[in-house]
Amino acid sequence: EVQLLESGGGLVQPGGSLRLSCAASGFTFSSYAMSWVRQAPGKGLEWVSAISGSGGSPYYADSVKGRFTISRDNSKNTLYLQMNSLRAEDTAVYYCAKDYCSGGICYFPDYWGQGTLVTVSS
Amino acid sequence: EIVMTQSPATLSVSPGERATLSCRAGQSVSNNLAWYQQKPGHAPRLLIYGASTRATGIPARFSGSGSGTEFTLTISSLQSEDFAVYYCQQYNNWPLWTFGQGTKVEIK
What we know:
Largest sheet of chain B: 7 strands, mixed
Helix content of chain B: under 10%
Order of helices and strands of chain A: EEEEEEEEEEE
Number of strands of chain A: 11
Strand content of chain A: over 45%
Largest interface: A-B, 23 and 22 residues
Oligomer: heterodimer
Low-confidence stretches of chain A: none
Shape of chain A: globular
Order of helices and strands of chain B: EEEEEEEEEEE
Structural class of chain A: mainly beta
Distance between the termini of chain B: 35 Å
Number of strands of chain B: 11
Distance between the termini of chain A: 40 Å
Structural class of chain B: mainly beta
Strand content of chain B: over 45%
Largest sheet of chain A: 7 strands, mixed
């Protein structure tokens, strides 16, 4: 059974930093791209960042480029999101997601974690 | 960025009735379209991918159709557990996903 468990959320002041983690189990972690998707309170879903199975080729939404860094440790089956220079508009539930990949091509998120809340406020 | 537009924003339906949700893409996404269900306080759950393929464990009352820019999610006979928010998502160019703003299906 695929399980994704996020941690690391909390309250942080504007300009501060936070690192989110996502512990994965139930599948061969290194074989799949992984992504972060966020949801501001009462709002819709926004893709944030993605990374290939090998850990190369990170991708970022324009809204976080230059402030957030995605990484993974395949030896620990864990995905990370380092968030710096946080702004009020970064307040959201952050979900990690396993991407459905086949034949070396990735498509959509097929499993999601339960999410971790990040609140940016003074 | 491909803009995804869902309609209506809210759909009021009685249990046992049919619900039809629409999703429009700003440009063709072929059949690279997924639907998700989200209940309050929970993560999204994959329902449909490839515009019309049900994900593992999804009941047959959920069906998807469409291609190009126009897509539809149909719930043939609403059950109590189906009242939720539904999102469409295009994945035409991984990982530059975009989601619709959601359709809330509520009890009439």
